[in-house]
Amino acid sequence: MCLEKKNGGLGFRDLEKFNQALLAKQGWRLLMNFDSLCIRFLLCGSIILMVISYRLVWDLDHLMLGGVFFWSDTVGKRTSSRCWIREDINVWMDKWLFDEVPKAPLRKPVLFNLDLWVCDLICPQTKTWDMEKLQENFFAADIKLILKQKPAMGEKDAYEWVHNRWGAYTVKSGYWLACSLDQSEVRKEALARPSLNELRSKVWKVNTAPKIRIFLWKALSNALSVTDELIARGMKVDSRCQRCGFSSESINHILFSCPAARLLWAQIGFPFPPRGFENQSLLENFAYLLEIKSNKELPDALTRIFPWVLWMLLKNKNAFEFEGKEYAVEATVEKIKDDARQWFEVHLPMVNNEETCRRRNSKVQWKAPSAGILKCNVGVAWTKSTKLAGAAWFVRDSRGVVQLHSRRAFSGIDSLVEAKHLALVWAIKSMAFHKINKVFFEVEAPDLVGAITRPRAWPAFRGYGAEILEVLQRLGE
Predict the structure, then answer these.
(1) Are 372 and 366 in contact (CB under 8 A)?
(2) pTM of the model as a whole
(3) Do residues 175 and 253 share a domain?
């Protein structure tokens, strides 16, 4: 039940892991705000508070086993260790590189400096990694990992959460990591192959009501109250099907092979598999239903209706056994079509072609700046295969008249964020060159904006944010 839906489970939260992820969130806040009033109160309080505070950080460290690493951005500046956070990163002793799991780099030279710090690998003039020192001390694989990290000049060393894009811990990513690190026998058995988990996971993608999705999952998990399952669990009941008198009543029987079920499938006009529903197993029938939506030759109104057919078969079976009611197949078909139509009208509203075209053709309007102020729009294009990026900027006044513009290319760019960063820095430097200091910059880069305005919430991009702020400060001067 606690297995993720994508792995074929019901998606319930494991309370122990979820509570640990929640507690680790408090530990993360303490680590990222070491000068806060809360942590000073905890450290200067009673023994009980001290135990609680250390427990928070212990849980964070325990949860982040294999999930967090230190990164250094200090040049020529070493501060003393402070409680749980070391602000100096030793190259050979600390696990400051991340390649699936945190690790220390391999030692290339036979004789090496044991007191080599990460800050010693950064060139103070260029404020980037010193390639000569990197090639002297590390292998090519580790150099590639080092170059992915952007040094932030003048900033203190801090933690970075590597299991999401922005580098800040979240309860969701912490819970995911806790589940990934779970090596219990129960979880290993649930994830063992061959398994029905892949088929069960497709149930959660079916367009239908949530209660029907749960019903489909139960059907695939042999969790419906039919006589075969009740007998398997030790109950003494009549094993015959109460509607047709067949010797056994399985899930496959009531949903596919019972005469009442076959009549309903035929009456609704649903296409049968080549061998028929009655000659296939439950898993084969469900696999057929879950894959039929990919058949473009059949109308969508027909292929997407099967969840309501299965749901109505179970309801009619229960109504017959417990209430003694038998519904006409024509009325059942109309009920199924009506329920499906109403659900799709609410959850998947049909938009007319005119409205769709209007929305697709609509464009975001450019907003003019105030009088006396210019606006610089920065655009970036990046290709992953060639690692080439193109950038351009346009400067317009309050009337929308282009005053200046330029474009250039960048090579050897590993990511789109790096391309946007280089383009924005280039645009700011260009404004400084043209002595334009009253200007707005507009770029589609929420990562960089977050690193500038909220650096603690975007630690993965703190190096980019620090460099942009430094260039902006020069522009202001």
Answers:
(1) no
(2) 0.67
(3) no
